[in-house]
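Extended Data, panel c. Modelled sequence:
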Amino acid sequence: MSVISYLEKRAGSAILSDTEQISINRSIDTIKNRLASYFGTQLSDHFRFGSSTRGTILPRSLDGESDIDYMVVFKDGGYTPQTYLDRLKRFADFYYSSSEIRQSSPSIILLLNHIRFDLVPAVNNWPFGYRIPNGASAWRDTNPNDFNTKLTAKNNAELFMIKPTIRLAKFWNAHGGFIYDSYSFEKFIVELPFFGCSNQKDYLFKVIDSLNTNNDVEWRKEQIERAKKVVGQVRAYERAGMPSSAEIEVKKLIPD
């Protein structure tokens, strides 16, 4: 197997299985119904967003922090973020008392057996989208659909290689101890130019080549430098006509 075919295979396996997807959809339907029942007219909207809507979510077997982002939009503004976080915490305690529940701004984390939900409280900020917590007492603006549109356009323009590249890069990121925030890492990849890239190896290696170790903590620098060394060694083996050695080497970057 070549490096390219190995990376293509790993990118293809970094997708939720049908069983996982069915289980997640069932949980989403349940949480939708429970939110509507519990809050009633207090909500103006609630919906899934994030990587699970973009096709870049990883199975939990590859990323233990993989989650479903779910935004809960409250009608009444004027309160601190902590007020809304407390409301969601009480909701989670009411319906999911046997599950792990904790606050991690800007969300309430609900850890079920098969998936983690990040329940994000929000208020409307028309016409600019929404405001979500930035800590317990401040807000920040967001529009979750904007990035989805940008990623889809980039993926279409790049031979449909961006989404599988993001999945591979996020696997490397998770395997290395979460060097980058997942969402920021996706945005970084979408902004990259991929001139001359034509296959999965080209696209993934372009991401690694573009990583910068400036102004970073030591352990992150070490992970990034290690990845760059692996990419350099893979290229050296391929130039030397040693495809088997190149495949063994790339598995240090993207394990079996």
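The CA atoms of residues 63 and 174 lie 6 Å apart. This feature is highlighted in the accompanying rendering.
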